[in-house]
Amino acid sequence: MAFYECYSSSKIERENQARVEKFLEDYRDRRPTRYTYADIKKITNQFQEILGEGAYGIVYKGTLSNEIHVAVKILNDSEGNGEEFINEVAAMGKIHHVNVVRLVGFCADGVRRALVFEYLPNQSLDKLIFPSSFKDNITLTWKKLHDIAMGIAKGLEYLHQGCDQQILHFDIKPQNILLDHNLNPKISDFGLAKLCSKEKSVVTMTEARGTMGYIAPEVLSSNFGKASHKSDVYSFGMMLLEMVGGRKNFDAKADTSQMNFPEWIHQRLNQGEELKIRIEEDDDVIIVRKLAVIGLWCIQWNATDRPSIKIVTQMLEGDVSNLTVPSPFTTRNTTHVGPSTQELTVISELE
């Protein structure tokens, strides 16, 4: 029995490695660069400086031979079937956009797999929008927050419409938005992404994917509809409202009767009241209202009621006087509605 289990495990591991190698063989003529594991150790100076740690691995700071800094993610899913690795390489290898993180290279050395990205010095958006995570005394003005929202929307629009295949991210959240030296945003972490034809309006999901608090209802359960590019719009809207409030939208431990932040925003705007949140200049009131209203449209419960990301970009570029508050406002706290989260494959916010 022990011999059989050992043989079976070894066979599965060989099949998974063969699956990854076949993908890389088909991918060989395209960039980025393929590195050996020895190269990765040299680039990271023996994994000396950790930048962060998530559900799929640890990210280290590295340096290429020409003194260009990079971020190297060592995947801890080496015993899996390689899906997360293939997803990232397949998706990001097709992408060339100012608002999407660039994949510099990768490593697939036996069961050891790694991804090499461009290095972004200001790390992720959550470090700047949540007060408890403020770093290096960087404060974002409302104009800068608007510019960041615009950049993220343009990056998503490119993923949905600008590539040969439609790329659905399925994990848009502040932790996956990285900022360069000028605080320009770049979408990262494509481990949960799905590639599909532009002609397909919906995609089939075998399990929920994403992070609780940002997952669209239809991704949580097919009872609420089919997953599509509108699912990314929902996640973008939840993130936009967190940018407005400088706080998490939902507390999973809170009483279900407690009013959540999106509902509070809608109630205030529907009653004609201004959102007096961190107002310092006259134009701040206009920007806060614009971001809040767009966020509310993006998180409508029914996907058909949400705008496409292209329309969202136009709304961000347009005049706030042309925006109306969605009414009726159909959304619910997805952390408490639908199937038990214990039955779903989802990621916690910390990951």
From TrEMBL:
Gene Ontology molecular function, alphabetical: ATP binding; protein serine/threonine kinase activity
Pfam families xref list: Pkinase
Top-level lineage group: Eukaryota
Chain positions recorded as ATP binding sites: K73
Family stated for the protein in its record: Belongs to the protein kinase superfamily.
Cellular compartments per GO CC: membrane
SUPFAM superfamilies on file: Protein kinase-like (PK-like) (SSF56112)
Phylogenetic lineage: Eukaryota, Viridiplantae, Streptophyta, Embryophyta, Tracheophyta
UniProt KW Transmembrane keyword: yes
Annotated membrane topology: Single-pass type I membrane protein
Stated name of the protein: Protein kinase domain-containing protein
Subcellular location: Membrane
Residue ranges of every copy of the Protein kinase domain listed in the record: 45-330
Record PANTHER family: RUST RESISTANCE KINASE LR10-RELATED
UniProt keyword terms in alphabetical order: ATP-binding, Glycoprotein, Kinase, Membrane, Nucleotide-binding, Serine/threonine-protein kinase, Signal, Transferase, Transmembrane, Transmembrane helix
SMART domains registered for this protein in UniProt: S_TKc (SM00220)
